[in-house]
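Q: What would this chain look like folded?
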Amino acid sequence: MVLQTIDLLKNEIPLDEESVVISEDNKTGLVLVDIINGFCTVGSGSLAPREPNRQISQMIDESERLARMFCDKKWPVLAFLDSHRPDQHEHPYPPHCLIGSDESNLVPALQWLEKEPNVTVRRKDCYDGYLGSIQEDGSNLFVDWVKTNKIQVLLVVGICTDICVLDFVCSTLSAKNRGFLGPLEDVVVYSRGCATFDFPVSVARDTKDAIAHPQELMHHMGLYMAKGRGAKIAKQVSLGALNKP
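A: My prediction, written as structure tokens:
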């Protein structure tokens, strides 16, 4: 029944995805959103998966593939890591990814990134990486990163498709439309490089203050909403050769 409902929804609000070739003609930056233990590693916290999850595993594999490609090219990479104070709550979610805990660290497959010179790591304390990049002096680390690296195309992967990824993409597109992010032209969300969590209604019904969150449905909705804000949705991403005159 659940799969039939998801298929019906996808027919009603279809999502057109495209194959994206990253050209060396355009300066491209890679953003990894919250690919950390607390959201991805089995048993690593209140919001971590309780058992291996195909969608999350695929997201990690695809994100690692792209990260290695970008690091081989010395292209700019920005990794957001969800990190909260103990007294900071994000209703309706329980405390998670506390500062200093292993929950707030990159998953094992990506920990090597912190030693790469082309990688910027930003620990954020809210869903939205754009807002989470505002520093004490009022500057914005993400905005500065885009401008310093002269990024024209932004490629986004991570978790959760419909929460932190979507919030960041929406804020970024709004800022681009207002002229705050020149020379940024396009924001691309890679569907296989994103994932969300699974909390079916059968479980949520018996959990206080819980909201049902079927994984496949919410993943589709997150991508659909991002496209509705102006993002490109990629079904596959590859590296293209430099177009010489």
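The radius of gyration is 18 Å.
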